[in-house]
Design brief:
This is Copper amine oxidase. By secondary structure, the protein is mainly beta. The chain has 6 helices and 26 strands.
Amino acid sequence: MKKHFKLTFFFASALALQSLSLKGQQLTSEHNKALLIAAQGSIVELPGFLTEKISSIPYQKMVLPGPQYIISDDPEYIRVPEIIALKEAVQPGAVRLYVYNVNGIQEPQKIDRKITAVIKNTGKSNMTIRMLRYSSQKPTTNYFLAGKNGLADYFASQPEMKGRTVKPGQIIAIDEKLEKQIVKYDELVHGFYEFVIDQPAEISILQTDPSTPGPKAAARIKDVASSRHTNAGRGLFGVSNYLVVTKDTFDTKNEAAAFVMADGKEDPWIMGKDASTGDMAKLAGNYGVMYNVEMKWKSTNGKGLALVTWNARAGDNKWCGGMANTMVVSDGKFKEGIIQLPADQLRTKGAPEAILVQIFPPAKNGEVQTINYTYSPPGASCLPTPLIVIPIDMQ
């Protein structure tokens, strides 16, 4: 979900992925001090420490009940002036929709466009659509900013108390902001929504001229863009939420260890179906999927735990030189809540830069504690983005 970063997924070497299971580096006193004095979400330099050889944390993964999940990111760059980029049927119930498309018109010249999301009531009775989560970013060429703020707004949003009514056969815009925005060449439209409907419906993502309402364009456009199979994917997918639980209780007497999710190997890409082709579809990156992580830990030596993340793929190619994310993390040294990563600048580069997510003090009696956080693979970043737990002295 960045101009060329998908190459990272498909061509990451087996050797690099295997190395995640090997032993990591020792934390120095200088590293320890840097983590203790750092602000939450800030970049902390840990020279000589960050490596993909840090031991991986074994975990079990379970599919949680969740909404029907649709993503529109194939083609990412819409090269036709007016066309449907995605069209999918959904059933009554909850729906999660991730729009990640770019105005790619450059021949015979670059022109302004509108990229919008619409929904058609295909049922026989009035349909109510009510937004549960809403995130809509301004069109931008700063893909890191869109992905990072998109997740932050999604996590912070609150359900609507009242829905909108859609008559049978009627088409309406899902997001009125998209209807009003002009998308210039190479600008990304980033929308992340969760809503509930009570009739069967059809969802379309389309590109048209800025003066044409999305519902009007949807009624007249017949063609659906072909899939390029070079981006994250498109279609209706069978997984939207995971529960991730550690197999063992982590003890601070051990070395640092890493959660590695969304690597396409130990954590495979989810599968779905593209209605426009009738073929099975793969979501390379698992973007928009929520990982609800529970990690049990204890301190038998009085140490606490620092949770950090980093851009492990920075050296793969020039398109992987940055990473930006947003997570929800449980209470520790800092209050529970949403944290942008990094919080003190747009993105992190690569080693020796780590981002401090949270510090968890040890229990006074050494009892087992549980760390909870919600992670979703960050749009515009190369994957995986490991999350490392590091035993640290709290004094």
